[in-house]
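Protein Record: Sequence and Backbone Structure Tokens
======================================================
Scope: a single protein chain, as residues and as a discrete description of its fold.
Tokens: labelled as protein backbone structure tokens, with as many entries as the chain has residues.
Position: the record begins directly beneath this header, with no further notes in between.
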Amino acid sequence: MVELKRIPTEQRNEATAHIDRMSTLEMVRLINQEDHKVADAVGREDQHIARAVDIITGHMKQGGRLIYVGAGTSGRLGILDAVECPPTYSTEPELVQGLIAGGTPAIFRAVEGAEDDPDLGRKDLEEIHYTKQDVLVGIASGALLYANGNLELALNTLFFHEEGGMIAKLSDSSNVGILVFLVMLGILVALMNKAGGSAAFGRWASKHIHSRAGAQFATLLLGVMIFVDDYFNCLTVGSVMRPVTDRQKVSRAKLAYLIDSTAAPICIIAPVSSWAAAVTSSVPAGSGINGFTMFLRTIPYNYYAVMTVVMSLFLIFTGAEFGPMKLNEDNAQNGDLFTTADRPYGDDVDDGNDTNGHVIDLIAPVLVLIAACIFGMVYTGGFFEGVDFITAFADCNASAGLVLGSSIALLFTFVFYRVRGVMTFQDFAACIPEGFKAMVSPMLILSLAWTLSGMTGLLGAKYYVANLLGSSAAALQYLLPFIIFLVAVFLAFATGTSWGTFSILIPIVCQAFPDGEMLVVSIAACLSGAVCGDHCSPISDTTIMASAGAHCSHVNHVSTQLPYAITAAACSAVCYIITGLAQAVLGSRASLVTSLVLLVVAIVLELAVLGVIRARTRAKTSGDAV
């Protein structure tokens, strides 16, 4: 609990305790002396202040505003600064604004209790049309809403709530397992780089890949081959293919998109993956539905996943780009792989000077990691206790299995490199902190993303979704796949988690459609929408991992990927309408052949849309050139 009397700003200043007994000159000197402490305090925090200014500037460049919100003296100082910005810096009056608890009357006199009324704060923000472009603090805001404006309760909720607080999230064994897995992967990637395996593969690929399309297709192909887990996919593909795409002048944003497009979209249609296990475990017990069989039946209807892969192939082999990605690709061909000034991993372009190592130093650890992760998953599912392989994979603990698999791969890599003589024990030890440091940023973002997901859950998002679906199920039965897809997109985007979306929506879908082909289509729409929302969300773990794997600015990755994801999502939404209407016509006659025919229709529709976009982009480019 926070005790106000212990906060420094709320305590009595001992230096001024007897100011009323001083002469006027002594008072002035004492106040001036105390004011000097402000400058010293600002000096100690100059780096944090500069970082805050950079963040605010970035929002302003995207059309956002700086909004000061405070109560009492804090609010008045915010208003004072906002008012002085236009005459001092020639800014627009709307760019910097100040809000004070209690409104205009509170500027001139105290309005007691105004800061404790959440409705007044919400009303003030609505009146200025507060948007996502403006500077805001998302997690704290969520906790504050849940706490109904009580700051003390908000802090306790944010950190210590048993269901959604940060400490609770970091105490969850599955989440900790993912963090440990990330550290293991980071160390493994550092070892492969130190041994020269990644550079050797880059040299080998340079001899066989001589075009930008070839480099991108190789990236896509490697991503498809590493289907076990999306985290492993993102980090491994990025580490291996980054030198190759750099040499062929493929932008880091495009590399991040290709990595992200073969992470969750591939895992969600791969039966042997951690995602298949997550989906299977989300089917409610006692429903009479075999989760793994249901997962297999949803694959042809998983339009977004398939369309994302098809779109990637189209973009690779036609060279078509649109939206912000086109600017990044044009700049890359002129030598700038990053486009943005924000380069969190530095100018780490591979120069090809590392001639140590061999391709086997990369291939062997990767193959062992894939095999060991599969072994770890089925082991945790009881395969070696007599359970069949499919059931073991469906019932596995993916987090524990991945930790076990990565540990085995790490041990193998150490022995393998020592036997080959490419690395000393000191080199191996040095890679451990290097690998950990490489994963610090993704681990921090994941921790905050889990906390935000918890705050969203505490605000009751799942109940809102359940009511929305329940009210529409009867009236719009054959449009339900379309509705489920949109709801899943929204939920996954807001929470940043596909697996959480599965656990919320799949039981609801199973209740709405106990059996039949509509059940399969609706669950497929749920999976497809969850992957789409996850693909678009800036707080999604896979999106974060794709940025980390490509060594690309996370904001740039999200902004360049979004137009492509929205295009595939729009085509998928139309296809779920078509599929729902087809089910209404065919009824019980719908079969596997029906699903394959509808999948072909979906692919043709997307290719037609992409063809139109490509033609319009070319026409616009030609017009600009003229």
Q: What stands out?
A: The radius of gyration is 28 Å.
